[in-house]
Amino acid sequence: MHLTAEEEKIYEGEQGWAYQTAMKILVKLGDLFDAEKLIPIESAHVSGVSYKTLGDAPIEFLESLAETGAKAKVASTVNPSGLDYEGIMRSAVPETVKEKQEKIVELYKNMGLKPVLTCTPYYASKPKQGSHLAWAESSAVVYANSVLGSWTNREGGPSALASALIGKTPNHGLHKPENREPNVLVKVETDLKNEVWYGALGIFLGKNLMDKVPVIEGLRYPKEADLKQLSAALASSGMTSVFYPCSRCPKKAENLERLAVDGQILKKAFEDLSTCSEEPDMVFVGCPHCSLNEVRNVARLVQGRKVKENVMFWVCSSRHVKAKAARHIQTIEAAGGKVVSDICAVVTWLKELGVDTLMTNSAKTAFYAPTMNKVKVRLATLKQCVETACHK
Amino acid sequence: MDLELKGRPLVSGIKSGTALVSKKPLSFLGGVDPETGLVTEKNHDLLGKSIKDVVFCFPHGHGSTVGSYVLYSLAKKNVGPKAIVNETADPVVVVGAVIADVPMVDKIDISQIRTGDTVEVDGGKGTVKILERKKACT
Fold first, then answer.
1. CATH code: domain of residue B73
2. ipTM of model
3. What is the CATH number of domain A282-389?
4. What's the gap in Å between the CA of B70 and the closest CA on chain A?
5. What does the alpha-carbon distance between residue A137 and residue A236 come to, in Å, rounded to a whole number?
6. With the CA atoms of B90, B91, B97 and B100 taken in that order, what torsion angle do they form, in degrees rounded to the nearest 10?
7. Alpha carbons B18 and B136: distance in angstroms, whole number
8. Spelled out in words, what is the top-level CATH class assigned to the domain A5-177?
9. A134-158 pLDDT, tens per residue?
10. Nearest neighbour of B95 by CB, restricted to A25, A56, A57
11. Is residue B38 part of a domain?
12. What pLDDT, in 10s, does the model give residues A283-314?
């Protein structure tokens, strides 16, 4: 890989150990993927924040980096944590766990990363179309590439952090136009009624496409939330990092290899994502974190109703969206629900809250929660979620 | 006679030690105890074995990118491997080797190496030298 004179100096350690280590990570990854150079990025989004998923392993490393005074060179944000600042989780976990979780967030903050603690950083600051990014949250990666028209590889926590500190990323994969060309045509032969069906489609495609780049035909007027669910689900079950949604097949895609998805395949994909049919302890909406529009939809559905006493009803979103949603939050909380930020059900300590059975409208959560949280899940539409959570 | 295998240099440094060879990919997050260096991944052919101070030969990593931090943690606690030899390196293990400063080589036919062999890894040149074959038990 060709390095500029300045990059070379950083690699040799002229700016200290933290920048040197970050540069080494990027150069070695560049070598691994045959990148010829580093390119500047507009922003970095770093995963690896929740102490529940991380454990102790990264704390020492983050400490060593932060100690040097190294700071992010570009706008950088971080993923959800295991604790929320309003304290829903605080009584559920021991003091030592709280300390470690707070430490991790503090270390990122010290390195100049913004503690937005959300998987949807694009609602607070939308990257420019065609901009290069180094993002690590997989649902946001697919969304950025496919919906926002930005260019990012699917980074890991450490490589996104290295990119934040250097302000660059190795030029390979989805940073190159030739790797973004579609190579498979997916024909959806059934009507996708709402966001859950988009999620089920994503899980099915992720499992069947490997890392192919699909044009997905037959999506009629998908809403933003539909494409977000599709993005998150694709990233959960597979390696696809960009897709092209369309209602009718573009000419250039006509000769590609084809994959047909009919109603039956999709129904099975949907059903396979539920592991139980019991009444849930928790009903969870907001994976990925809700947009303002989604919070408003939930508020409309729960207006004037009451959440059952034995059910926790969580709507997860970012602080940024919450700040604009005061009226809707009031409606949801008056019904007995909670609008929670900084965390999500999957990266926090659900078992400690007493949750054994989870209902959600997120295919990504349904895919991960049985293994990551050891809970049983039921996948359902937002409407069904509200119906189940509330008294008749 | 020394057998020298030529691969791709990834993380520089020269280390020699006893080889521990696995046929299975490994996830460092959840697959290795960061305190002890013992393999904990279910159904793994090295389950219960220690990777402390060995030249660790396995096809490639898989699973969460937090795995890179586990490698760092192992090195800090002196329970990590001396060097890593992969068939096809993946980003998780490469980043882990960089931050843990563990010499690493890939594009090596690891079936040429047997557990117990004494080997020398040169991460800068991309070579693995078999210095001494493990004596057969017969």
1. 3.50.30.10
2. 0.85
3. 3.30.499.10
4. 5
5. 11
6. -150
7. 15
8. alpha beta
9. 999 999 999 999 999 999 999 999 9
10. A25
11. yes
12. 999 999 999 999 999 999 999 999 999 999 99
